[in-house]
Amino acid sequence: MSNGIKVIKDKCVGCGLCVKSCPYGAIELIDKKAVINEKCTLCGVCVDACRKFGAIVITRNTFRGQDIAAYSGICVYAEHRQGKLSSIVPEIIGAARELKKDLSKPICAILVGKDVSAMAREIISYGVDEVLMIDNPKIGDFAEDIQAQLVADILTEKKPEIFLGGGTIIGRSLLPKVAAKLLTGLTADCTELAIDPDEKILHQTRPAFGGNIMATILCRNHRPQMATVRHKVMKPADIVEGYEGKVTDMSHIAIPESQIEVLEFVEEQTETVNIADADFIVSGGRGLKDPKNFKLIEDLAKALGGAVGASRAAVDADWIPYSHQVGQTGKTVNPNIYVACGISGAIQHLAGMKSSDIIIAINSDPEAPIFDVAHYGIVGDLFEVVPEMIKQIKGA
Question: I need a surface site. Which of 171, 234, 260, 354 has the fewest CB within 10 A?
């Protein structure tokens, strides 16, 4: 059944009630009959207005019932770029191995791309039982339309009951496409995954309502149960020396033509390390007052051998690129030391950094929420405190 709206001409009396009720101006009368145009959003208000005559009907896509007993096992998406596995892959495998303890089912990984064969054994070394691989020069790093179809085809054939991916730029783009193709659900940015001891289904927990509550989501009637996990939230899997797994060639699946043309890839140039992998992070917020003052943050980060982070306010003001944003709508980080400079501590920012081992907050407002999570707080002018910190670190 396909989505759509239809006017039954024989029942339409041209009363105009539907025209008056439509909030989008999507209905007009032509020859005393209702005609619905492209502005329609299928909201259904017109159906209620025409209830007396029943001249307007809406049909919607419905999910077919699935034989969920046919699905078994845990599968992970092996994200990679430029010939290297993403650093989130061991974390996803670590989460899968924890689920395996309660589910007692094997773990497989989907690996698709160009020249990816060498990565298969690396994936197995983390305790993966089987790698489902398609190695083909037609599959580029950025060909998400091809990859989404291939991943969906592999899942359809192998039928795992759980499929996990990373809450990364790639994962947030690719996995929703896969879920849509499979007509199943997807819970994004999970911070906890667990198996229900009685029903043996996946409990997918994530922040909701701006991080004010934690919501646990279940997918009872459709498979696979799909979730993405945020970077630095799950404990990475340790390498299992001599682990015996197998590589299964899935090249019998046809490679579709890509509708995406990649013109150029320009890698961001930065003198500091990536915040997702950093042990030390220095972040700046609105308290810096001017984008040029991020030089102070960069200097402190460089002195610590760390990375530069930022609050959403600083990113929204175009003071620093989005790749530096820490928080619910940015990156989740888990460094040894996190230094927050001029950041008030909105709950969305705290969601991305509060698991840091040590949090140091510098803010002139003693009532700033950041001090509620900070291990060490400095109430003072960051333009005086940060230069002194740099001086002390350098031993000048």
Answer: 260
- Do the Cβ atoms of 15 and 56 come closer than 8 Å? no
Cα separation of 354 and 374, whole Å?
8
- Among candidates 387, 294, 252, 279, which has minimal Cα distance to 338? 279
Amino acid at 156: T
pLDDT digits (tens, 9 = 90+) for 187-221: 998 989 999 988 899 999 987 776 667 889 999 88
Q: Strands 80-81 and 84-85, how do they pair?
A: antiparallel
**pLDDT value at residue 297:** 94
Q: What is the mean pLDDT of residues 350-355?
A: 86
- Closest listed residue to residue 270, CA positions, set 320, 211, 201, 199: 320
For each of the domains in the chain, give its residue range(s) and CATH number, in order of start. Answer: 4-59 (3.30.70.20), 68-249 (3.40.50.620), 275-394 (3.40.50.1220)
Residue showing tokens 């982070």? 309
Tell me the three state secondary structure of residue 66.
coil
Angle between helices 144-158 and 169-182 (to 10 degrees): 50
- What pTM does this model have? 0.70
Report the chain's terminal Cα–Cα distance, integer Å. 73
Residue 63 has pLDDT above 70, yes or no: no
